[in-house]
Specification:
2 domains; Nucleotidyltransferase, domain 5; about 280 residues; 14 strands; globular; alpha/beta
């Protein structure tokens, strides 16, 4: 008799990470995880082959049966029906209007009702709620990276806030609170040629620019939280995304102005997968 397992998948613009988990009682336990590169600009057949190679590497077909699949994927996407709607996003163009759910059903023998798709910002929050044991709280989550992801959790439900495009200052929030926003601010103040935030953090010759960049970010975050997050009356805020890895450079200044617990993401993919799997029973 084969063991029933759950497969969790995190699809990004340049990679896919898959994990298999086994449920015992009400708890899930990790079995295997694998990450691989994906060429999201490739043809449909090549992308699906790359996805399937990674997913199949965490599944022992001889001894395991996939009982459920839960997939974190960025939008635009029809999460209820599993249809890719990414158009003009510089990724997965060849999958536009494809029924991803049917592909997984056929490829892995899983019933459609047992395949769940979820927005990546919501998936991030579910993983960190699991890690910080905050499932009984009202919690907002912000993912700070190339863009600004946002989600809110209350009453065992996670909603995508889509606050990256919310009105803010002279534009939208993502114009300021993102890699693009920070580097644009530096450029406007005479510093050009910095490719990404990590370069800014790692280069000891850029101490002045680093201080200016993260002061700008801290001020923008404080204003944004006061304008858009505190109105939700959360009991805490979780910060994730690549920029949050440098939280020591901006979070103390934010916490001085915001009277609310602010948690930093674990940056552990297993928390994401355990949070996704646990959400199946929410």
């Amino acid at each position: 008799m084969k063991d029933n397992i759950t497969i969790c998948i995190d699809i990004g613009g340049s990679h896919l990470t898959a994990a298999s988990l086994k449920k015992e009682g009400k708890q899930y336990f990790p079995i295997k995880e694998m990450q691989g590169d994906v060429d999201s600009a490739a043809s449909r057949d090549i992308i699906l082959a790359q996805w399937d190679q990674i997913i199949q590497s965490v599944w022992n077909r001889e001894h395991e049966k996939i009982d459920a699949m839960i997939v974190s994927i960025p939008g635009p996407f029809d999460y209820e029906n599993g249809i890719c709607l990414m158009d003009g996003m510089h990724k997965y163009q060849s999958l536009l209007q494809m029924d991803i759910k049917s592909h997984f059903m056929k490829q892995y023998g899983v019933y459609g009702e047992n395949i769940k798709f979820i927005n990546d910002a919501k998936a991030f929050l579910l993983g960190e709620l699991y890690h910080h044991n905050l499932q009984d709280k009202r919690i907002a989550g912000l993912s700070l990276g190339t863009g600004l992801g946002s989600a809110f959790y209350t009453d065992k439900q996670v909603s995508d806030l889509n606050y990256g495009s919310a009105p803010f200052r002279t534009g939208i929030a993502e114009d300021f609170i993102s890699t693009r926003g920070i580097l644009s601010h530096l450029k406007q103040n005479g510093t050009d040629g910095i490719a990404h935030i990590k370069a800014l953090v790692d280069n000891e010759k850029l101490i002045q620019e680093r201080t200016a960049a993260f002061s700008f970010l801290a001020e923008a975050l404080v204003d944004f939280i006061k304008l858009h997050i505190l109105t939700l009356k959360p009991e805490g805020l979780i910060l994730g995304g690549s920029i949050a890895k440098s939280h020591h450079l901006f979070l103390p200044a934010v916490q001085k102005e915001i009277n609310m617990p602010i948690y930093v993401a674990s940056f552990n993919s297993w928390n994401l997968f355990l949070g996704l799997a646990t959400s199946l029973s929410l």
